[in-house]
Design goal:
It contains six helices and eleven strands. By secondary structure, the chain is an alpha/beta fold. The strands form three sheets. It has a five-stranded parallel β-sheet, with helices on both faces. A four-stranded mixed β-sheet has the order 7-4-5-8.
Length: about 220
């Protein structure tokens, strides 16, 4: 026991000495600009689709908005989706064009199963969706529904997190949203008895419908 206590005291003394005496060694400047990941040659939409699918996301590519309406209507009917909720004016216009029933009434938010939102941008490297409080959907819709459906455009694709921050700064200048959140796949946890549960703290499934607005023929 004596040897153990002595060894512990020696270690603690070394720690105290290190904390009170600064090293004379110069560390130098930290390189914050160089890439730490290998640059991919794949187009951003393929990178995003691959990485988003890897975190259990469901990805659907649409050549245009008409194809989005057709794809969403088919998937909604095939999965018997009900209680569709949307606050985004742009998506509401598309749903109305397809005669797809939805609600935008505040009192229906808590009982909604399917929540449709836009996003700020998509991060290809991590397969992440960036949302903010300045969207019409606000802070709640992306997290209240059982199924979170994101409608995005290829012009919103960025390579990495740093690019997403630049994207937001270019968009909002000095008036950034009060809440910016990065969502990587559906909600899941293994806190309870180390059993993986999907949808514990938010949507149990997440879809991204990516509409091409760059490579239009």
């Amino acid at each position: 026991m004596q040897d153990s206590t002595t060894s512990r005291e020696k270690i603690l003394k070394k720690i105290r000495k290190a904390l009170t005496h600064k090293s004379n060694q110069e560390i130098g400047d930290v390189d914050k600009t160089s890439e730490i990941f290998t640059t991919s040659e794949e187009p951003l939409e393929i990178q995003f689709a691959t990485n988003f699918s890897a975190v259990n996301g469901r990805f659907v590519f649409c050549e245009n908005e008409t194809e989005f309406i057709e794809n969403f209507d088919f998937i909604a009917k095939d999965n018997q989706w009900e209680n569709i909720f949307c606050l985004e004016p742009k998506i509401k216009d598309l749903l109305n064009k397809g005669n797809i029933k939805f609600s935008d009434k505040e009192q229906d938010l808590l009982k909604t199963d399917i929540g449709l939102t836009l996003c700020e941008c998509l991060v290809a490297r991590t397969g992440s969706v960036v949302v903010s409080s300045k969207q019409a959907s606000g802070r709640r819709v992306p997290f209240y529904s059982n199924f979170h459906i994101v409608v995005a455009y290829t012009s919103q694709l960025v390579s990495n997190t740093n690019d997403s921050i630049k994207f937001l700064k270019d968009k909002y200048s000095n008036n950034l949203p009060s809440m910016i959140s990065t969502i990587t796949g559906p909600s899941k946890t293994a806190d309870i008895e180390k059993t993986l549960v999907q949808g514990a703290h938010g949507p149990r499934e997440m879809f991204v419908f990516l509409i091409d607005d760059i490579h239009l023929i």
